[in-house]
Amino acid sequence: MNDQDNQGNLNKNNNSPSLKQSDPEKYAYLMSEAQAPYRGLRRFIYVGFGASGAIGAFIFFTQILAGKGVEDNLLNLLVQLGVIGLMVFLFKWDRKKDN
After folding, report:
1. Membrane-spanning regions, if any (predicted)?
2. Mean pLDDT (the chain, rounded)
């Protein structure tokens, strides 16, 4: 038998129901993952970087309140707030694309 005959036999013997009919919940999950791959990983990164920015902003803010290197820490605080703002924007944009 050649490969074409084998392929024909596989197609003829495939009487199993499709994934769409057998498990619609799994099918919906797989379709959503195919349309937006790595969505969960992206959101995890957004939350992780946002949390990192929040911790950094808190540290720099407390150093500014203590009066330690106000000029340097003010610039660092602004960078951390920018990171937080960027992550919030990306997270919201990612959610908006889903709808």
Report:
1. 44-67, 73-91
2. 83
